[in-house]
Write a structure and sequence with these properties.
245 residues; alpha/beta; six-stranded mixed sheet; four-stranded antiparallel sheet; 10 strands
């Protein structure tokens, strides 16, 4: 279990995360949702140890460190691969450094995305780079796979097909924490939704609970965020009024 207790993170005196406590059991697909700047990426990077913070983050009761960090993987559109190396060279590197690396899954996903094995990553398109980042994260052999807007630059068909593939390949012990703004696209694939706003968790529910209430994920998020349906019309009225002055 990945457990976070009283996590607080600040940048230059500005609070990015405030007293967050949450647990992520193994075997779940979790959607992490929130507006831009809500703290989603900061939360993920704190889990991975990229940021210093106040509070406690443990993996099966142990602090996340060099001894267990291989149980966590990360896919981000910022890219963490070696741009001058080919996918084959990355595979060889990962097989050497991650004993649980799945070569079979790697080959299957490379074929699914139709990515070339012998072409340097720097020559890939942005969408292809993001696809490859996801492949590495899924094949590392991690128990917790963190994905931060992993499919920027990919078309809707690639994304939809991948969600289906993801459901088919995940093992019972694998957990995916997926941060995305594509709420309606992932609503049928996640089992739990966590909402973050201004650095705090403001919602945490399962899709089964939403189904029991007859509520869609989008409506739940709007309700929890107190979304105002007249937001656009009010803004247009104000803008038009300013222009007439």
């Amino acid at each position: 279990m990945l457990e976070i207790k009283n996590l607080t993170k600040a940048y230059a005196g500005k609070t990015a995360l405030k007293d967050i406590s949450i647990t992520f059991p193994r075997g779940e697909i979790i959607g992490l949702f929130g507006e831009n700047g809500a703290g989603k990426t900061t939360l993920m990077k704190s889990i991975l140890g990229f940021h210093s913070y106040l509070g406690e983050i443990t993996l099966d009761g142990m602090p996340v460190n060099t001894k267990n960090i291989a149980r966590l993987s990360f896919a981000t559109s910022e890219h963490s691969f070696f741009p001058n190396l080919t996918p084959k060279a990355h595979r060889d590197f990962y097989k050497e450094h991650f004993p649980a690396f799945s070569d079979q899954r790697f080959r299957g996903l490379m074929e699914f995305f139709a990515l070339p094995m012998h072409k340097a990553l720097k020559h890939f398109s942005m969408g292809q780079k993001n696809q490859f980042e996801v492949i590495l994260a899924l094949c590392q052999g991690a128990d917790y796979i963190l994905m931060d807007e992993p499919f920027a630059g990919n078309d809707v068909f690639n994304r939809e097909d991948f969600y289906k593939v993801l459901l088919g390949i995940l093992e019972p012990h694998e957990t995916v924490i997926l941060s995305t703004h594509l709420i309606e696209e992932v609503s049928d694939f996640i089992g739990r939704a966590v909402l973050i706003r201004r650095g705090q968790i403001i919602g945490d529910t399962t899709t089964a609970e939403l189904d029991e209430r007859g509520q869609t994920l989008m409506n739940y998020i709007k309700e929890t965020y107190h979304y105002r349906s007249d937001r656009v019309s009010r803004a247009l009225d104000e803008i038009s009024g300013e222009e007439r002055v």
